[in-house]
Amino acid sequence: MCIRDRFIISFEGIDGSGKTTISKIIYEKLLIEIGSNKKIILTSEPFSQEIIKLIEEIGWKDPISLALLFTADRAYHLNLLFKQNPEIIIMDRYIDSTIAYQSSLGIDENWIRNLNKYFPEPDLTILLDLKPETAIARIKNKVDKFNFDEKISTLSKVREKYLELAKRNNKIRIVNAEKSIDEIVEETWSIVYSFLNHF
Ligand code: ADP
Ligand code: TYD
């Protein structure tokens, strides 16, 4: 594989869509495939424990504060990340999470885009798409970071927003996350592999 200076591959989708599971497997496959030649980092947002604590304190009813805090978290995260000079960054959530979740709470998408405008765009995004009912059933026993009822009730809107973003941006590739983990990994790997081989 021929690799450019730095790639950001993000995983997006509603809570319980399988981002943590699938991004980890893809990361491990990349390590086997090209890890000895390239510095690959798997990381996730929200990142800072301090900012996660602030978000837990304010709850899910103040989308302006949420957008600002998630974006501040991203500034801090990227600052630490780029100091490590990674060549491939696998992000479990990135800018599109703020757009999809906080715009679903009534915040203007363009304002969120402007807040995030100096951060690098992802080069490729895997959108794990599934019905909120399937996702909620999968995570009913999982201890979530922000376990707010208001959040769960907006997941349909968040899903629609993600699908709308994917329609407008061909760097966002939709993968059907209703399928088995093996099938999702196979499809995702073929997208990631052919994307990286393209450069
Ligand atoms: P996310 O990071 O998007 O919230 P997770 O990767 O934590 O999602 O997955 C949520 C739960 O669903 C975990 O218990 C995981 O093992 C399970 N899971 C993930 N993908 C699938 C799948 N395709 N089919 C069935 N269960 C899955
Ligand atoms: P996360 O722990 O990744 O949730 P999960 O693994 O269940 O998908 O993220 C915590 C929650 O924060 C999740 O509901 C999505 C939300 N979130 C936003 O609302 N805006 C953002 O910018 C980010 C990064 C996350």
Explained architecture:
The protein has 199 residues and is an alpha/beta fold. The chain has one domain: Rossmann fold, CATH 3.40.50. The chain has helices at 19-34, 49-58, 63-83, 95-103, 109-115, 132-139, 149-153, 155-168, 181-197; strands at 7-12, 40-44, 88-92, 124-129, 172-176. It is globular, with a radius of gyration of 16 Å. It starts with 6 loop residues before the first strand and ends with a helix. The mean pLDDT is 94. The structure holds adenosine-5'-diphosphate (ADP) and thymidine-5'-diphosphate. The site of thymidine-5'-diphosphate (TYD) has 16 residues, from helix 1 and helix 4.
List keywords for this structure.
alpha/beta; Rossmann fold; five-stranded parallel β-sheet; 9 helices; 54% helix; globular; binds adenosine-5'-diphosphate; binds thymidine-5'-diphosphate
Give the topology, please.
Blueprint: E1 7-12, H1 19-34, E2 40-44, H2 49-58, H3 63-83, E3 88-92, H4 95-103, H5 109-115, E4 124-129, H6 132-139, H7 149-153, H8 155-168, E5 172-176, H9 181-197
Helix pairs in contact: 1-9, 2-3, 3-4, 4-8
The structure holds adenosine-5'-diphosphate and thymidine-5'-diphosphate.
Query: Distance between termini?
Result: 8 Å
Order of helices and strands: EHEHHEHHEHHHEH
The CATH homologous superfamily is named P-loop containing nucleotide triphosphate hydrolases
Helix content: 40-55%
The CATH architecture comes to: 3-Layer(aba) Sandwich
The total beta strand count reads: 5
Quickly name the level 1 CATH class: Alpha Beta
Question: From the helix content, strand content and strand pairing, which structural class follows?
Answer: alpha/beta
Major β-sheet strand ordering: 2-3-1-4-5
Count of domain modules: 1
Largest sheet data? 5 strands, parallel
Query: What is the helix tally?
Result: 9
The proportion of residues in beta strands is: 5-15%
CA-based shape: globular
Radius of gyration, taken over Cα atoms and rounded to an integer in Å: 16 Å
The low-pLDDT segments are none
Q: Overall mean pLDDT score?
A: 94
The CATH topology name reads: Rossmann fold
Ligand kinds: adenosine-5'-diphosphate, thymidine-5'-diphosphate
